[in-house]
Amino acid sequence: MIGLLTILLTACGDRLTATNLPTSETSNLPVVQGRISEVAPPALIQELRPSLERYAPQVTILSPLAEEVFDDTQVIVKLQVSDLPIFQDDTLKLGSHLSLIVDNEPAAAIYDLKQPIILENLAPGTHTLRVFALRPWQESFKNDGAFAETTFHILTKTGKNAPDHNLPLLTYSSPQGIYGAEPILLDFYLSNAPLRLSNTANGDNNLQDWRIRVTVNGESFLLDTWEPIYLKGFAKGNNWVQLEFIDGQGNKVENEFNTSVRVISFDPSYQDGLSQLVRGDLSPTIARSIVDPNYQTIPSLEEETPFIEPETSIVEEENPVVEETPVIELESPIVEENPVIEPESPVIEPESPIVEENPVIEPESPIVEEKPVETETVEKLEETPEAIESPLTTIPETKEINEPAPGIQPPLEVEPIPEPQNNSEQKITIFDRVQQTVNRFQSPSSPAEKDIELPTLDPQLFSNVERS
User: Which residue ranges have biased composition labelled Basic and acidic residues (predicted)?
Assistant: First the structure.
């Protein structure tokens, strides 16, 4: 049975009673006098503590069973907890958990009961497993049912590590491990401890006047209440802490595990979640996530507000992108580049003089004059139509050039259109000149020449020229 102990409402400093009763276990350890003192709990822990007062955890060891004997050095542990959420905050790595102790070894923290718990390389003989519930800052729950223990055996039974359930049992809880801030919690769990009665009631029973003797680095003091305290004055580096259960006469109550000692380390630069919590580096909003596993959604809503602000700035950045429409205005002068077609119209004008080069046929007519033989002239005259074919080839080219000009339709300057009329006039002059050349060789005085039939020019050739 776990006895309920009275809590004395005294000042923090009054609870530490100095004692000069060293034990044989601590007589060879260094002693530091006057450095350790009790202080109030950290403010943030005092603010969070009421959130867990509504819980009364019930811890059960499902395996191993009491007095069970195993034929192997490996044991699988199964635990069950009710009325307390067991979890670990992802950021601070803190949360309500279980403390598991095998014999009197340092405790192991259990944050997930779904994960297998395996004890390996256990020595043959008797072993005792103790499990109890802790708050996130390593303070134990002290309600009835928050502590469970069982004794089992590996291969065989021995008398060691088997506490007497008829005697009070002291279980060391804190401090242990590494700490980065002061004050440091001192906490323990008591089993089978009798109620503290008045001095007149059953005064002969020394166990009713029990105390806990605490020794830190050789400096000892007594506690007569079962409640956690916070201490400061630890030295940097390693420190040692010892707890002893003693009776009203100052004698140790002999039972397994009633004397426990731990070595801890104090490093002010250590930055774990507990150190931040003790120093007050955390806001209450963030710290509340270690007492309520469902409270993680509230900080996420607060974190969303800064994300809305940059989104507005992003919309403002998009406005200058809309103002880039002037780029379209820059493209409009590109459409005005159509006047580039206008310089092409004068290109057609220099081509018209190319048609005027038709007078090149004129040097051919003197060639006929140089030859007095009439037969040869006839041959030359017959060849003249071939020479006349040259304007047939050139004149259509000029017309093909003039045809695209109306399609472009520049300003109404269509002066090159009358050029074909000039060409037609040039064709008539050419006919007249040829006719004049033929007439030169006609002589009425010679009768022989009258019998000669001169070839006549086919006017259709010239009409074809006009049609083209």
Answer: 371-383
